[in-house]
Amino acid sequence: MIRLFNSLFFRISSVFLLILLVISIVYIFISVNTAEMYYQETRQRLDFDVASHIAADNKCFYGNALNKKVLENVFHNVMIINPSIEVYLLDTNGTILTYYAPSREIKIIKVPLEPIKEFVINNKESYVVGADPKNPDKKKVFSAARVVEDGKFKGYIYVILGGQEYENASQIVYGSYILRLGIRSMIIALIAAAICGFIAIGIIVRNLRKIIIVIRDFKDGNINARIDMNSKGEMKEFADSFNEMADTIVNNIKEIRKMDDLRRVLVANVSHDLRTPLSIIRGYVETILMKEDTLTTDEKKNYLETILKNSDRMLKLVEELFEISKLESKETEPNKEEFSLAELLNDIYQKNNIIAHNKNIKFSLEVGDNLPFIYADLGMMEKVFQNLLDNAFKFTPNGGEIKIIFKRKYAHSLYVNITDNGKGIREEEIPFIFDRFYQVKHDSCDESIGTGLGLSIVKKILDIHNFEIIVKSEPAKGTSFIISIPVNGTT
Predict the structure, then answer these.
(1) CA angle 436, 440, 441 (to 5 degrees)
(2) For helices 164-219 and 8-46, what crossing angle results, to 10°?
(3) What are the residue ranges in the chain where pLDDT is below 50?
(4) Domain tally, the chain
(5) 71 forms bridges with which residues in the sheet?
(6) Within a domain: residue 168?
(7) Which residues face 358 on adjacent strands?
(8) Contact predicate 421/445, CB 8 Å
(9) Do the domain assignments include residue 179?
(10) What stretch of H or E contains 47?
(11) How far apart are alpha carbons 396 and 390 in whole angstroms?
């Protein structure tokens, strides 16, 4: 029972019923008052000429004095014909000269003339109320007429159409009528509105229950739970917002799982890549220590060179791990500036020319004319091109060829193409070459062993610059890395 009282359905229904009750009371009050006004105006229009008939058919004054005999006869006849009206004879200033108003004494001796004058001249044009001498605080409908005798204006006949007798009877009827009308109207209105309201509230609460069930299902682990809402309005917006939120949460969960998988792969690959050079270093150090007295100088030198080579490999792996970690966590922001990419490529070409000469590789740089500056981080871009060249030298055999081509592509775009005629990459491997620790499934053309992080670093740097890179390759024919670079601030 307590749960029912605390339910949304009960609270909404209670508020709804309270509102209906207030509206019903207000409606009854307005209806009754409107009906009363309608009845009064109708009565005034029907009895509009009562006062004028009394004034026309009777001589109310005898000279300057009241004609009491005539007035008593008139008042007697009026009482018999209609006991609910009250008749007053006023002088020209509104002072009551005489009257017929049974049961109660009058409380004022002078009636305001403004409503009477308005009534006399409006000829049923509007609804007019005036003062009741017995109850001055309450305005009532009346009939009035000027009294003109012997060509002289002598006063007014003032007739209250709903006098004290009428009011007493009206109060009795009014009370029972209001009670019947109120109870009947309220019951009918409440029943009809309640039925319609409960149906509407039930539909709303049903949709809420549906939403709550889906939300609980999602909370309990069903990440595919979604709200299917066909209705429109706020409920639809709420359902769509929840679905969008759920999609975001699911995507975040997938991203977290993906990052966790990458973390496991990273730990496994780092462990593997560090274990090999560490084992080699340990083995050669132990050999040197065990055979220190029997090893020749050349053998010791070879052992130490091997140790140094594997130490360099470990250092490079750690540096690249540190670099890609900062790029992925967005700890490193590019320090962009305008510089000549042609000059940067020429410097890189000069540094790698010796490597090409030692490997008997034809190495060339082709730069277009009047190329604009680019807006990027110079150090990061140097790292990009050096990593791509390291990759090219690694898979290009002796006697091969490597080209760097830097030219304008469109009016606001440049491109750099680093191409070789090495072993190439199989088509099914191309989508994965920028993944961390991924290495193509064939041997390199030199003795160096890669870390599998070089191309991943290239992709991360280009992504934070909004530069595009495209890979084209065919096995045994070579590979091209094409970087598209916008200029003049375009991205």
Answers:
(1) 130
(2) 160
(3) 1-2, 4, 164, 169, 171-172, 445, 489-491
(4) 3
(5) none
(6) no
(7) none
(8) no
(9) no
(10) none
(11) 10
The answer to whether position 210 is within a domain reads no
Q: Is the C-alpha dihedral spanning 436, 441, 446, 448 positive or negative?
A: positive
- Could you give phi then psi for residue 449, rounded to 5 degrees? -115, 125
Of 308, 303, 314, nearest to 273 (Cα)?
A: 314
- Domain of 407 in residue numbering reads as 336-486
DSSP 409-472: EETTEEEEEEEE-SS---GGGGGGTTSTT---SS--SSS----S-HHHHHHHHHHHHT-EEEEE
As a whole number of angstroms, the distance between CA 280 and CA 304 comes to: 11
Distance of alpha carbon 402 from alpha carbon 421, whole angstroms = 7
Counting beta carbons within 10 angstroms of the beta carbon of residue 111, is it exposed (0 to 12), middle (13 to 18) or buried (19 or more)? buried
The tokens of 122 are what? 């409006």
**Domain annotation covers residue 491:** no
Task: Read off the pTM.
Answer: 0.46
What is the token pair recorded at 452?
A: 């599998």
Query: How many C-alpha atoms does 404 have within 13 Å on its Cβ side?
Result: 24
Residue from 342, 321, 332 nearest 464 by CA: 332
Beta bridge partners of 337: 376
Domain stop point among 326, 346, 364: 326
Distances in Å between the alpha carbon of 39 and those of 25, 34, 264, 481?
21, 9, 91, 97
Residue 341 has φ and ψ, to the nearest 5°, of -70, -30
- Phi/psi class of residue 466: alpha, beta or left (left: φ > 0; alpha: ψ in -120 to 50)? left
What does the pLDDT look like over 373-422, one tens digit per residue? 999 989 889 989 998 998 888 888 888 999 999 998 877 889 999 999 88
CATH code of the domain containing 128:
3.30.450
Token digits of residue 161? 């159409």
